[in-house]
Amino acid sequence: MKATSKQRLVKADASHVDGGVHTLHDVNVPPSPTWNYLNINGLTIQIQAPEDAMTATSGTTTETSPAVLAQARAHGHMSPGMVEAFKGVELGCGEDTSNWIDAHADAYKFIHIDKGATQTLTLAIDDENLVATSNVYVDESATLDLCIIESVGFNAQALTNAAVEPTAGQATEPTRASTTLDSKKSAGHNLRLIIGADAKVTLRAFITGTSRTYLHNTGIKLLDGAKLEAHTYLLSGDMTCVGCVPDLYGTHSQAELTARYLVGDKEHLDMNYVARMRGHNSQCDMSFSGVLQDGGEKTLRDTIDLIHGAKGAAGIEDETVVLAGKNLINRSMPVVLCNEDDVAGNHGSTIGAISPEQLVYLTTRGLTEADAIELVSRAVCDDAYLHANRELAQEQVLATTRRVFGEKAVNDLLLDTADE
């Protein structure tokens, strides 16, 4: 596994910056808008820009300079075609968000997983690297275990552990550091991931929730026979925007994506998933589930786009939402777009609350109504902890559990999973 960094290529458009606050437009816009009065066709958000944003110069696209290409080839063993290929990867949060993150990235990486290799990689977005861009190319027949962690109070040293010799089946870990969170600063990560022919990637992302705005922006291109398994855990957070575009470009490419979320009081989660089905006999399954607590707000746009030429393609999307409180807002927009014959697309959404009968049953077992709601909500954190395959991810999940539910919940979680 090879990695290289480069200097910031462009700056965000200065006209969008006002006193250190940057306005992002057309965030998480779906491919096919619906009625405007539903307030689900994307959003405009204001974020606290990094220190250099107030002096940003204009520019709206990322250009790959000859020096950058030379550096990527020298340190990352990437051909010019590999580096240029990242420019064609579509990201889920939109162009304005993608350009802003690229322009203000504290760490900008090209990472190449060699042909046939089996490796692990950890990327952490922390107080030292609030904004980062990672361009990962997984070569033909390679296998990658990738973990992304939005962490508070930790330092990933160089964002990636690419300098560590890879060992099959062994995860690398970022290094801790004592830092103080500035909750006014926003954070974000662009991930452009290209999965080569017959390569396989397992991706886990842990968004562990802070009082800042976080932009989780992902684009994935799958070539012939490529396979992706992606699991995202969204554990609370003031304002979290998630955009993901799996582009199933290759024949027989496969993608399975899941997301579990917990949204609490005065928290806002906004998601946009778009599966571009291009390859013959490609398959994509997307599943979402989560809990909305009192005062929480969640928006999900999930689209299966069956593009002309994708003969034999099949896409499935489903969502299950538990409404565990009052004064909450849930928006769900499942869509199937079809421009091809001989394809299959299915979508659905289930929304409900804990039934009175279930509450009666739980109270007979000694639980109050508040205890029952907490039990359902905590299940999201429990599941995240069980699937956290990095020590840093486990610690961040426990920290979020402690912040939201208290020390007893952490002790119960550790006790329940001690024998797992």
Automatic annotation (TrEMBL):
Output this protein's name.
SufB/sufD domain protein
- GO BP terms: iron-sulfur cluster assembly
Residue stretches spanning the membrane: none
Q: Where do the SUF system FeS cluster assembly SufBD core domain residues begin and end?
A: 182-379
Q: Which PANTHER family match?
A: FES CLUSTER ASSEMBLY PROTEIN SUF (PTHR30508), UPF0051 PROTEIN ABCI8, CHLOROPLASTIC-RELATED (PTHR30508:SF1)
InterPro entries on file: Fe-S_cluster_assembly_SufBD, SUF_FeS_clus_asmbl_SufBD_core, SUF_FeS_clus_asmbl_SufBD_sf
Spell out the family assignment given in the record's similarity comment.
Belongs to the iron-sulfur cluster assembly SufBD family.
Domain of life, source organism:
Bacteria
Q: Name one Pfam family in it.
A: SUFBD_core
